[in-house]
Amino acid sequence: MSMIVAAATGSSTLAFPILTGLVLTPLIGALAVLFFGRLRPEWTKMAALTSSVATGSLSLWVLQAFDSTNAGFQFVSQHEWIAAWGISWHLGIDGISLFLVVLTGMLFPLVIAGVDPHHDERPYLAWMLILQAGVMGSFVSLDLFLFFVFFEIVLVPMYFLIGGWGYGDRVYAATKFFLFTMAGSAFMLVGIVATALLSRDSVGEVTFDLVVLAETGALSVAEGRWLFVAFAVAFAVKVPLFPVHTWLPDAHTQAPTGGSVILAGVLLKMGTYGLLRFGVYLFPEASVWARPALYTLAVVGILYGAIAATMQTDLKRLVAYSSVAHLGFIVLGTFALTDQAVTGGVMQMVNHGVSTGALFLLVGMIYERRHTRLIAELRGLQHVAPIFAGFFMIVMLSSIGLPGLNGFVGEFLILIGAFDTARWWVIIGTVGVVLAALYLLWAYQRVFHGEPDEANQGFAELRLREGLLLSVFVAIIVFTGVYPKPMLSRIEPSVTALIEHVESRTDYQRPIQGEAKD
Amino acid sequence: MELDTDFTAPTIEWFALSPYIALAGGMLIMLLVGALTPRWPRGWYGLASATTAGVAGVLAAVQFGELSSAAPRTLVKGALAQDRFGLLALITVCVAVVFTSMTTADAAARSANDAAPRTTDSLEHYVLLLTAALGAAIMVTANDLVVSFLGIEILSLSLYVLAASDRRRTASQEAGLKYFILGGFASAFLLYGIALVYGTTGQTNISDIGVVLADEISVPRNDAMLLAGVALLLVGFGFKVALVPFHSWTPDVYQGAPTHVTGFMASLGKVAAVVALVRLFVVAFPARADDWRPAVFGLAVLTLVVGSVLAIVQTDVKRMLAYSSIAHAGFMLVGLEAAGHIGSDSASDGVSAALIYVVLYSVLAVGSFAAVSIVSGAASTTSLDVFKGVAKTNPVFALGFTVLLLAQAGVPLTSGFVAKFGVIRAAVSTESYVLAVLAMVSAVVAAYLYLRIMVSMWLAEPVSVLPRTVTIAGRMTLGIAVAITLVLGVLPTWLLNLGDSLTSLAR
Questions:
Q1: Residues 90-129 of B with CB under 8 A from A
Q2: Is the pTM of this model over 0.80?
Q3: Total of domains in chain B
Q4: What gap in Å lies between CA B104 and CA B107, rounded to an integer?
Q5: Which of A23, A31, A82, A120 would best serve as a mutation to test chain B binding (most B beta carbons within 10 A)?
């Protein structure tokens, strides 16, 4: 494979358009599912698995071929799409998106293999694969319009997954999810158009290309701030940040297990990733300006999410609220704008995807067995299902941030990195770490400890397939926790380049870290 | 005012007039032959009207192609404009007739099995589609207020009859009567507006009005009278386009009229009215843009907000789609508002955005109402409940309708998104940020409506399994509409590359 390094942007071009492959493979799979499914129903699942495993393998290939010394965009492929509007099919990844792409590639085959829908397998799998294509597309897009297309198209499969295969009040939850996110995107669309048109003079043409706009576009301070707000609204809904988080507990709780895992694992990351890629990179001045507000929202989210999680009676809702808290940390890290904090934030996006995804799987398994998610009705599961409890324990501790597991590395980096730039917020936010231990351990204690009553006596132990599925998650949790260096060394160059980009365009200077203060 | 004493007959460009001649000729031949022959086999009337419209559309398309090199011009001493703006609309009108001929035949075939057939496969019905198309064709290219008014009347009278064509249902007759009476009011407003504008400028020719008004010094004129005329024209067209607050007829008429006719009104009627409105204001009144733009702004805001908010509280699908068509008209007005920023380089973006919006919407409207007609055909109601569980019984059909609904909601990779994006782009490039944001937010509100229909189709249990016979014509209508929606949604380049050539209007 020959690599041609494009000197101007520091990006490399590859002969085989692997990123396009990443987006198209699941789509082809979705079509195969629809067609095969009708002729040969028994092939449905095979087709879905094949295409999602193929996508996963492609993403792993990208991981090993990724050049960790290159901070720019790699595997770039660019083709004209809607030339009349200056829109191109421009894909590429750097250290910031790399692991999100891998996470998306890995999580879907696991979910498809490990969690069966209760009915109508064919459309379920087709929607799943379309969802994978959409999420993948939004992580690799380097064109504002293209990103918006993927960002928005994701709503449709997720809407049908929640509405069609969810629990209880699923239609309400699905509709709320769709409308909240779409309302946020409404502002972003106007923002995207305005960004392209207002940069017309400085760029020399109307283009929606992210790299061109970020590197050569020059917006006035006021313009940049307004546009940043327009983008931030959309991402804040997606993250979700307090006070626009209210769709999340409903969507998570009513979604089918597979949907919850994907929602928590990768969909929410589209918000935090967006803040970094389209907020900080595109509007450096406004990002620096908006930091106090975002810190505050992040910390409010951390505390609010944690307190709300503590009060939940429904295990799934508890995990959902814990997401609000965790994502608060990620936003805090993102806008702290130091190498460590942003690297930690990016890492935490992946960690949260793994550990919360696994938590949703476990909660889903509990529900399959007991047909309830109410903490009060569960008791003493540790006695009847010790292996199950063991897996739950590891995943939960990862979510709490126990040293040696993945959650610790990310959270620690965020807190230590943000200490210089957002000291008081960090101090308050740290309370959230303690609260996380409180609500998760308390929940664990209520569900797994004690003597099982009659209803819980029959709680089945982990099955082989479930065990294998969870083992993958636990392996990632432990490996990243013990040896995070391969991951960090790939994220860090791009993060440093991003922060230097911010420094070169604003009067912001990151504090020199690692040196003695006196 | 001196009169032209020595009258010289204008030169007539017969080929340029051929689409109109084809429509009128086909219509007359159908009436004549149909009256002299026994009843034709089922579907043949529809075939005849579709062929006529198809021929007219091809003739218009040929001229559209010729205009890539030739400059826009006016025909018959300035009575008609020949430019790509009008011709694209004319082609759309013909396409709408082809579609509607098919949906009418489809509805008639389905109705033939009923004990009391509600739609008959009658000759007059198809002939009226062609007269309406002739009126619309004249409207979209009229370059004279009087000619425009003729077109409006030909179109409106045909639509009044079509709306009332379901003789067995009182709702249909009520719709026709209501449309007729309120439409008469609107025509009166239009005529009064034309009279006042003529009174001030001494012209009825749209280009000449523009020339006269652009000339600030030489023509003494009564400003109040002119502005009153412009306002009355806006009211008249506002009624035809169904802008809030002149929209009150729309839900009742859309609900009462036979469903395929509703689709026809929403597509062809909207194209004709919006294109005529844009042409009039952009060609005749650019000098007064600062006066009419705020009015258009206000109407756009009202139309967007009221249309989308009222859409979501309806329980009848036809009423829902009626209000949604009002909300869509609001988007078209956003384009007109952008076109009103005359000094700005980007004003012409608004013209092409509004046109492309209405063209793409018309395809969605025909397809959506065809789908409603198919679902509600067996049940004699269009309540949302009829749609429950359609996906279980007819999954492919449900998928097609879902694509059209998602397109109306403005989801990417559909033509609806391309249309919305173009309008938003035009608004932003003329710095109408408030309007752009409002339009997008109202699109979110309206999205709830399309979600409700989708929920009924996909997520609700079927109430009763109704036999839904769909003829080949019905399948084709839906299939082609969905194909256009997706192809232009993914690859809109061809349409957008027309953009610049669409905006040079004949003057």
A1: none
A2: yes
A3: 1
A4: 5
A5: A82
